[in-house]
Predict the structure.
Amino acid sequence: MRGASLLLAALLAGCASPPARYLVGEPYRLGGTWSYPREDFALVETGLATRHAPAGWNARTANGEAWSDSRALAAHRTLQLPAVVAVTNLETGRTLLVRVNDRGPANAGRVIGLSDRAATLLGIPAGGSAQVRIAVDGERSRALAEAASPADRPPLPIAAAPRAAVAAESLDAP
């Protein structure tokens, strides 16, 4: 009995997801297209949504979280991770808040990849796609960014103005 409870505890510990890590990231190439991640708390896009299929159950996402098809999760090519996005299926009128924690979808013609649970709730059939409107929930997304530890939030690079010698010249009276 004791061995079974230790085995169960070990299995559950292995399933625990690490805390969210804030990530903007470097430019990358996916599906033959370059993407340039950026922090954007006001993004609104319209386009196709599809189901996102990462490399297996409990696979790690781009920001280190565990992917789960039973949760309302999503993948986006350029948003900061994590972010909260309102996804509206323009064909059914259904709207759902999802947590964006991965990069994708691989097809450049799609604006967002959804977990099976999110796609089902929005009325997107298995293997299908739908026209959607996505809008970042700025308040919730900022709260997620601020909740990340300072070590996870790299400072934004700010280029200083070039310094040069200042030259002075006297002008003749008019």
